[in-house]
Each structure stands twice: as C-alpha cells, then as structure tokens.
From TrEMBL:
Keywords recorded for this protein, A-Z: Carbohydrate metabolism, Isomerase
Top EC class of this enzyme: isomerase
A cellular component term, taken from the record's GO annotations: cytosol
GO molecular function: N-acylglucosamine-6-phosphate 2-epimerase activity; N-acylmannosamine kinase activity
UniProt cross-references to HAMAP family, sorted A to Z: ManNAc6P_epimer (MF_01235)
Family membership: In the N-terminal section; belongs to the NanE family. In the C-terminal section; belongs to the ROK (NagC/XylR) family. NanK subfamily.
Designated name of the protein: Putative N-acetylmannosamine-6-phosphate 2-epimerase
Record Gene3D superfamilies: Aldolase class I
Coiled coil, from the record: none
Pfam families per record: NanE
Catalytic activity annotation: an N-acyl-D-mannosamine + ATP = an N-acyl-D-mannosamine 6-phosphate + ADP + H(+); an N-acyl-D-glucosamine 6-phosphate = an N-acyl-D-mannosamine 6-phosphate
Keyword hit for Isomerase: yes
Pathway of action: Amino-sugar metabolism; N-acetylneuraminate degradation; D-fructose 6-phosphate from N-acetylneuraminate: step 3/5; Amino-sugar metabolism; N-acetylneuraminate degradation; D-fructose 6-phosphate from N-acetylneuraminate: step 2/5
C-alpha cells in the first residue's frame, strides 16, 4: 500500500521527548515508537537522524522525519537545509517534513521540497496558515500539516486549541491534510478527522511525560483548592 493510503484515517504518534530530558535518548525513542505501533499508530513522527535510525530499526510503519535546528538568524526550526533532508532520507524516512512558512530562512522552501522529492520521499509542509499550504502545493508537497498554526508571529492568536478552520481550508485545496498541534485528547483527535483531516498527529499528550505530568499535577492542586 502506498504511504498516504497507509496513513489515511490513521493516528500518527510524534515521538519527540523533551529536549535534554531523561527520555531524550535514541533507544527510548525507539521504545516509544514500538509502543505507539503496538497501540495502533499508523505512522510516527521522529526528530533527528539518530532517533530516526533507532526507530526505523524497531518498526515498519511510515515515518515522518524532521530535523530541528536553532538558527541564530532565522525563526525556522524544522528541517531548514537540503543537507538535512538527505540525511533523513538516508536514515530511513518515508516522509520528510519541513517548515513551509514564509519567514526569513537559510534556503528556499521550494529547494527543500525538490531535495525531498529527489531523494524519492514525500514532502510534508508544516504550515501556520492557508497561504503556506497554497505555496507548498505549488512547490510539490504531498501533505499539508497544521503543525505551525499558533507558533508564528502572524498566528500567535491561534495558540489556544486545535486549528479546525485551517484543517477545513486545506481540505478545500484538495490536499492530504494532517491535523497537528495541541491535539491533546481523543475527542479532539476525532474532531480533527470530522473537520476534514486525512490523518492526525499527536505528540505531547502521548510522549512528553514531563509535560503531561505537569498538566495532571496542576489539576491535582486545583482539586485540592476546590475541596478547601
Ligand atoms: C511547533 C513545533 O515545533 N511542533 C513540533 C513539530 O514537530 C513538535 O514540538 C510538536 O510536538 C508536534 O508538532 C506535535 O504537536 P503536539 O505536541 O502539540 O501534539
């Protein structure tokens, strides 16, 4: 079955531990990946070449790979260089995702898509808004993700909840739509699919134990306060 067909109607689990936390190790990422697949994940999203190689050896489902960099002169973090694309393709990515926003960046987004396609992989555009998706389709991306909605200056106001409107707008473009970003409950995952997403990616709520623990810990404190 082709990769998009495998992902359609499925859950993608993003296995990205908290940076430099106790779970930020390739063997642990590989274990998370295997556990996600055991739970029914149709695909995975993995950051970094070493993590990707470890996860690739552990599972057979499609992997969306990224490489995050903190650049001194650009806000673009997700797979900013064509060399990153080639490294991820060589380490076993099926799909390579890149920042598709229209911001200051070291290499044009179109060049990244060209590099992804030249390596025989599919391109996923991590978008913040509708125009990002429009440009990405012209460039040759196969998947439009809502990943960056709420995380750019222009979309900072949307950082609460899931961007269901953007899912619908991408759907209207005729694209394969990946809902991603703050899908923190099973009910929200269902809402994204009902709104027109072809697949949905969940990260923090499944694989960032420190953050999930903090959510619950705060809820417990709130419960104590309510009892008083
Ligand atoms: C904005 C950005 O850099 N997003 C990243 C992209 O890979 C990850 O940090 C997110 O965890 C991922 O998109 C999944 O989203 P959530 O963790 O909200 O389920």
């Amino acid at each position: 079955m082709d990769v998009l067909q495998t992902l359609r109607g499925g859950l993608v689990v993003s296995c990205q531990p908290v940076d430099d936390g106790p779970m930020d190790r390739p063997d642990i990422v590989a274990a998370m990946a295997a556990a996600a697949v055991a739970g029914g994940a149709a695909g995975l999203r993995i950051e970094g070449v070493e993590n990707l190689a470890a996860a690739r050896a552990a599972v057979r489902v499609p992997i969306i790979a990224i490489l995050k960099r903190d650049l001194p002169d650009s806000p673009v973090r997700i797979t900013p260089f064509a060399d990153d694309v080639r490294a991820l393709a060589a380490a076993g990515a099926d799909i390579v995702a890149y920042d598709a926003t229209d911001r200051i960046r070291p290499e044009p987004a179109a060049d990244l898509v060209a590099a992804i396609r030249a390596s025989g992989r599919l391109a996923m555009a991590d978008c913040a808004m509708l125009d990002d998706g429009r440009r990405a389709l012209v460039d040759g991306a196969s998947i439009l993700g809502t990943t960056l909605s709420g995380y750019t200056e222009a979309t900072a106001g949307r950082s609460d909840g899931v961007d269901l409107a953007l899912i619908g707008a991408f759907r209207d473009l005729g694209a394969f739509v990946m809902a991603e970003g703050r899908v923190n409950t099973p009910d929200l995952a269902a809402q994204t699919i009902a709104a027109g997403a072809d697949a949905v990616t969940v990260g923090t709520a499944l694989t960032r134990l420190e953050i999930m623990t903090d959510w619950f810990q705060k809820a417990v404190v709130d419960g104590v306060r309510r009892r008083e």
